Amino acid sequence: MRWPARPRIGPFSEGAFRSRLHDERLASVLGIALGVAFAVCFVTGLISHLIQHPVSWFSWPSRPVWLYGVTQGVHVAAGIAAIPVLLAKLWVVSPRFWTWPPFRDLGHAIERAGVLPLVAGSLFLLFTGIGSINRFKPWGFSFPAAHYSAAWITIGALVIHVGAKLHVAARSLARGGAPPATTTRPAVDGSGWSISRRGFLWGTVGAVVAVSVATIGQTLRPLRSFSVLAPRDPAVGPQGLPVNRTARSAGVIDAATSSAYRLVVEGAVATPLSLSIEDLRSLPQHEADLPITCVDGWSASGTWRGVAVRDLLEIAGARPDATAEVVSLQRPGSAYATSELERSHATDPDSLFALELNGEVLHIDHGFPVRLVAPNRPGVMQTKWVAKVVVS
Ligand SMILES: Nc1nc2c(c(=O)[nH]1)N[C@H]1C(S)=C(S)[C@@H](COP(=O)(O)O)O[C@H]1N2
Ligand SMILES: [Mo]
């Protein structure tokens, strides 16, 4: 195919990009860092998805209690750290977006077409992720579904991109620190100041450290006071724990404070139960220190006290290998109104239908009269205002 001569306008014109930093070696180093960050986000995100959408071939243990806090903390931290790296990488490779001719052959055309879902998917994932952890959701779609689909598209495009660029990275990195032999560009960029490759990389590293320190305190308590950009301070809230969804916004105040409240246990049980708060208090109480580990990346621990899930299932005469669905007072269909208790969580002695938090009767925003709290479980599955347990 014959292409017309290179256009002379704007970014198409020869020499439009003058900085030395538009360089293969820099692109490779940033690309590898991004690839690692995205792989970490993908694996941790997939784990979180599988826990929330149980499948037969994957089972998530209830121990160690902090594991989900770590995988999800890492997911959010790696996503945040990827932002400056992605911006740096896009700037470094920006001349490539205007190469002429647009493609040389079919292989090159496919490789270039793959860059669109890669860049668009990356920006979409990071933007929706940041929006979500800040409770800023100006979009009309379901965040988890969209974030999850976009992750597959982006990772697919990333695998193709890595395959296509591996030889470039190997070549440019093998050259060592020496500037590429093909560089004929002036050492000074268009703006009249000059920065070395090393300086640019350190600048990017500095930006990564800055955004990370500014947010990681929502997971790592000792860094809390530095975390000026963290969406949550895990220590602020009634009874020392943060609240995203209040009883008022969930529309459960009347049902939760009604004297007619009963916790119902039904389904595959020998004896269906319907228990008042007094009934629940008269059962053996069990205490456990457990964190709430939100998918948003924050986690916060409390001392919970209440009826052990396995005790309640035993009283109802459920099978020892029973699983259950926990249903809240919230309108059915609203997000987080229900959650699955898989076997590891149904049998763990520290899985509780909690009535108390930190020595006090559960605050209504923490799920009064009864909330589920179980070890090593995403926050979204720690259902508040529990009304019903459907055993299967
Ligand atoms: N019924 C119900 N339970 C719920 C929620 C909810 O919206 N409704 N939010 C969940 C989420 S996302 C988390 S992280 C934990 C703690 O949320 P909170 O900060 O709103 O208490 O409770 C979970 N339990
Ligand atoms: Mo959450």
In short:
With 392 residues, the chain is of the alpha+beta class.
List strands and helices in order, with pairings.
Layout lengths: L23 H29 L14 H27 L12 H28 L9 H32 L22 H20 L30 H4 L2 H5 L5 E5 L5 E3 L1 H6 L3 E8 L5 E10 H8 L7 E5 L9 E4 L1 H5 L4 E6 L2 E2 L9 E3 L12 E6 L1
Helix pairs in contact: 1-2, 1-4, 2-3, 2-5, 3-4
The site of molybdenum atom (MO) has 6 residues, from loops.
Question: What brief labels describe this structure?
Answer:
392 residues, alpha+beta, Fumarate Reductase Cytochrome B subunit, Sulfite Oxidase, Chain A, domain 2, five-stranded mixed β-sheet, five-stranded antiparallel β-sheet, 10 helices, 42% helix, elongated, binds ligand MTE, binds molybdenum atom
Structure description:
Strands 2-1-10-5-6 form a 5-stranded mixed sheet. Strands 3, 4, 7, 8 and 9 form a 5-stranded antiparallel sheet that branches. The model has no long low-confidence stretch (mean pLDDT 92). The protein is built from 10 helices and 10 strands. It has 2 domains: 10-226, Up-down Bundle (Fumarate Reductase Cytochrome B subunit), CATH 1.20.950; 239-391, Oxidoreductase, molybdopterin-binding domain (Sulfite Oxidase, Chain A, domain 2, Alpha-Beta Complex), CATH 3.90.420.10. The protein has 392 residues and is of the alpha+beta class. Residues 244, 294-296, 379-380 line the site of molybdenum atom.
| Helical content band | 40-55%
Which residue ranges are poorly predicted, with pLDDT under 50 across at least 5 consecutive positions? none
Radius of gyration: 26 Å
Give the ligands present: the ligand Nc1nc2c(c(=O)[nH]1)N[C@H]1C(S)=C(S)[C@@H](COP(=O)(O)O)O[C@H]1N2, molybdenum atom
CATH superfamily of the largest domain: Transmembrane di-heme cytochromes, Chain C
CATH topology of the largest domain: Fumarate Reductase Cytochrome B subunit
What shape does the CA trace take? elongated
Report the CATH architecture of the largest domain.
Answer: Up-down Bundle
Query: Structural class, judged by helices and strands?
Result: alpha+beta
Work out the number of β strands.
10
| Gap between N and C termini | 64 Å
The spatial strand order of the largest sheet comes to 2-1-10-5-6
CATH class of the largest domain: Mainly Alpha
Count of distinct structural domains: 2
